[in-house]
Amino acid sequence: MKYQLEISDLAFRYGSKEVLKNINMNIKSGTFITIIGPNGSGKSTLLKNISTYLKPQKGVILLDSEELFKQPRREVSKKISFVPQNTALEFDFKVKDIVMMGRHPNIKKLKGETLDDVRIAERAMLYTNILTLSDRMFNELSGGEKQRVILAQALAQEPKILLLDEPVSHLDLQHQIEILDLIKNMSITESLTVIAVLHDLNMASSYSDYIVMLSKGYIAYEGAPESVLNKKNIAEVFNINVHINGNPLTGKPYLYTLSGIKKPKKEKKIHIICGGGSGQELIRALYSNGFNISTGVLNIGDSDWAVSKECQIDVAEEIPFVEISDDSYKKNKKLIMDADIIVLTPVYYSDANIKNLTILLETGLENKNLYILSGNNFDERDFTMGMALNIYEKVKERKNVREITQIELIDMLTLSGV
Length: 418
Fold this sequence. Notes:
CATH superfamily of the largest domain: P-loop containing nucleotide triphosphate hydrolases
CATH architecture of the largest domain: 3-Layer(aba) Sandwich
Oligomer: single chain
Radius of gyration: 28 Å
Helix content: 25-40%
Number of domains: 2
Distance between the termini: 67 Å
Shape: elongated
Mean pLDDT: 89
CATH topology of the largest domain: Rossmann fold
Largest sheet: 6 strands, mixed
Low-confidence stretches: none
Strand order of the largest sheet: 6-7-8-3-9-10
Number of strands: 18
Number of helices: 15
Strand content: 15-25%
């Protein structure tokens, strides 16, 4: 198989400090590769070696089967563009002039820029949503705007390989997604090879065809996102604990960090029936105050489920888009029976989760304290043709039931020292 970029036994050091060692990579055209790893693992240094900004002391890099460092710099610049972390410029220029600088390797000597060059630069500004900034001075811009200008310059170069060192670090979430969507689309439709350094492992998972995980200057793991991003590898390299679930839209791994909050110390147990984000704040508030809590039944991937996993609490869970199974129901009932206090948050009900409500009519729960958190009109949350509302009214008739706001509940529990 012919590779666009081949790296063999690459090693690099700053003085006596070895930063990269025994790096081997074979990259096909149109692949989106993400380099991940802790700070100091050599990610940026690897990109700088590929960009020829730094030259390795050992090893070979082949670009289109020819040694990279033996090719004329101008020819390399036509094929590879590099967006660094640092976007500072020594001299100030208009945005449109900076983007046009990306055309320099393609402009013939003594002929100057052509109308095609102008169109290509304008297209790059349009892609990166900075066309309205074209007459602004670069140093007047925000950090995120500067980052998009430098990316536009790199795209104006029309490279075959795009190197990105933390390309979205200064952008808000909307622009992060816009930029990565753009680059991913170009890798697919224009066979643009992308080699990016990203700190956000979920973004790396979502956009990458291939992931290279660096640790202390060497490749610890590499492969498809689902083979690299697992609990064992992340714990070993990043020294953090995560819970991993498949993204329901892409099927790729989605990571939830597990906090280092100390285990609860209070003896009494609280079970929260929630879902759809209705319990997030309450779970965090009670757990951070040392309460022993559980939740359920929650769909895997639900935001309340994710917080429960983050806090490492006991949760009755179910796969999404199906009715609560007998096994999940039984586990939820056990958690409720073990609890001293039950809390019902303002959940939306359908046939899939109505058992979270009917369970409160079970015998044996008469002496349990049940707190119902006030929310919007129940009719607006009932998608069962009134069935959930009828059950809800019966639940409220039981003894030891009290309607309360979330703030009142938190204050009552924390101040009473339950």
